[in-house]
Input
Amino acid sequence: MPKKKTHYVLVRVSAPEDMGATQVRKEVRSLINDQCNHSADEGDIRAAKVSAVPKSWVGDKE
Output
């Protein structure tokens, strides 16, 4: 099995107004890890922007 490298990214998403930040994070994890929604309806969570994390935020861990 090939080695894995950790990548750090910032993701900005849009979500319904009544969904809290904790629920949004849970939905994003489900969409990435399970390729499905946790409890939100399809299309509720949309990626608005994906960008690199500044190296100074992460340090030299690689």
